């Protein structure tokens, strides 16, 4: 029960942090900042979905982490890590070649958010599609 509650607490703190970031920003917000806020909102929605699923499992006295969910997380982590390596190479390649000038911090933030978003998308695909038995 504590782990499920922790997911909701972290999601709430993240929403509060984004709201404070947007409202107290001293500079003019760019389009990329709104894109980042949208991606963060999507990831919070994913975390809430994951927390509700976990909370319902605990209410039914089911094990929170069985072999299948562990295997899905392992496969998702491996696939998203592999993809993120190519994503970072692509980001480094296009950093100086596009007309949009962004600071290095914005590129790094975009890359990290891209990694998190791809992890969430990959988890949803593996969760609903299933994975083959590799053994």
Structural description of this entry:
With 135 residues, the protein is mostly helical. It has two domains: 1-64; 65-135, no CATH class. The chain is 78% helix and 0% strand. Helix 1 (2-23) runs antiparallel to helix 2.
List the uncertain runs: none
The DSSP helix count reads: 4
User: Per the principal axes of the C-alpha atoms, what is the gross shape?
Assistant: flat
What Rg do the Cα atoms give? 18 Å
How many β-strand runs? 0
Distance between the termini: 33 Å
Tell me the structural class. Answer: mainly alpha
Quick description:
This protein has 135 residues and is mostly helical. It has helices at residues 2-23, 31-59, 67-94, 104-129. The protein starts with a helix and ends in a 6-residue tail after the last helix.
Question: Any chance you could write out the topology, listing elements then pairs?
Answer:
Blueprint (H helix, E strand, L loop, with lengths): L1 H22 L7 H29 L7 H28 L9 H26 L6
Helix pairs in contact: 1-2, 2-4, 3-4
Features:
135 residues; 4 helices; mainly alpha; flat; 2 domains; 0% strand
